[in-house]
Amino acid sequence: MKNFLCLSDILKKDNLQVKEINIWNYLIKWGIKQTPGLGSENSDRTKWNDKNYKELKKILDPFIPLIRAGRIDSNIIKEELINIFANWIDNKNAMDIRTGNDIFYKFSLIYRGSHDGISNISFINKCNHRVATLVLIKVLQSNEIFGGYASFGLLGEDISNNFVFSFKEGQTMKIGRAKKERISWREKETYGFRFCESMYMDDRTLYLRKNSYYYENVCKSNTYTIEEIETFIVTK
User: Fold this and answer.
1) In the chain, which ranges are continuous DSSP H helix?
2) Which of 163, 208, 224, 229 has the most CB atoms in a 10 Å sphere around its CB?
3) Which residues contact 141 (CB under 8 A, 6 or more apart)?
4) Which DSSP string corresponds to 27-48?
5) What is the DSSP letter of 65?
6) 103 Cβ partners below 8 Å, 6+ apart?
7) Contact (CB, 8 A) for 70 and 63
8) Cα separation of 174 and 167, whole Å?
9) With contact defined as beta carbons under 8 Å apart, do 173 and 165 qualify?
C-alpha cells in the first residue's frame, strides 16, 4: 500500500522531468513485479495467458490516467479512454496494455462547439485539415457518446484506417471500422463532418445510419441534437 501511494504521488507531479516513454517502461516493470504469478516466477511474456494480462492491467489501471501521455483536453470523455483510441489506431484490441515500444500519440484540441459554435460553417473553418483527426460528440437526451477517427483527415479519400465508435459510460465501447479503402468526395463538402452515411453532422443535428456501405455498424439508425462536439488533431 505504501509503494502504491508513493508511486501515485510521484506521477501526479506536473514538474516531473522524465519522458513519458520512460515512465511507461518503468511502470510496466513495476506492475509486473506486483502481479502474482509474474515477475521472477514467470518472466517469459510469450507464456502469459489472458488471466496474467488481466491481473497486470488491474494493477496498472489506477496509474494510467496519471501518465502525461494519456492526457486530453476534453469535456466529453475521461483521459483513460485515450489508450483505447491509441490501440484502435494501431489496430490493436481496445484493452491491450501500451508500453514504451508503442507509438505515443498527442491529441491537440482544435475545435470545441460550446466555444467556437456548433454549425457546419464553424466546424469546416476549424477542422477540415488533411491530417489525422478525432471527433467526439455528446448528444442531448442520451448518455451515449459518438465519434470517429479519420487517418487522413475528414476530407481524405483514403478511409482504410478510419473508424467510428459509440459507447455509454461503464459499458463496452463499440467500434465500426471502414469496410472500403477509398471514397470519392464531392468537390465541396457541405456537412460539418461526414463518415459517409454512417455518421454525419448537419449543423446541430447528428445523423446515424445502420447498415452503412462503408462502415461496420456501431448503433441503430437515429438522429440526435448535438450538445457538445470536440475535434482533435492526432500526431505522433
Assistant:
1) 2-11, 20-34, 50-60, 82-89, 113-116, 120-127
2) 229
3) 224, 225
4) HHHHHHHHSTT-BTTB--GGG-
5) G
6) 86, 90, 236
7) no
8) 6
9) yes
Low-confidence residues of the chain: pLDDT under 50: 1-2, 4-5, 14-17, 186-187
Q: DSSP label at 162?
A: -
Distance CA 140, CA 133 (A): 23
Buried b vs exposed e over 57-72: b needs ≥16 C-beta within 10 Å?
Answer: eebbeebbebbebbeb
Task: Specify the pLDDT at position 40.
Answer: 76
pTM comes to 0.73
| pLDDT on residue 1 | 42
Cell of residue 29, nine digits: 516493470
Which grid cell sits at 215?
Answer: 462502415
Residue-level pLDDT at 20: 56
pLDDT of residue 172: 82
Q: What is the CA radius of gyration of the chain?
A: 19
Strands 194-195 and 174-177: unpaired
Handedness of CA 55, 3, 82, 42 (dihedral sign): negative
Please tell me whether residue 93 adopts helix, strand or coil conformation. Answer: coil
Predicted local confidence at residue 21, as pLDDT: 55
**Number of residues that this document lists for the chain:** 236
Would you state the pLDDT for residue 52? 82
Q: Are 71 and 82 in contact (CB under 8 A)?
A: yes
Report how far residue 45's alpha carbon sits from residue 53's, in angstroms, rounded to the nearest whole number: 10
Query: What confidence tens digit (pLDDT) does each residue in 140-178 have?
Result: 989 999 999 999 998 888 999 999 999 987 778 999 999
CB 57 within 8 A of CB 3: no
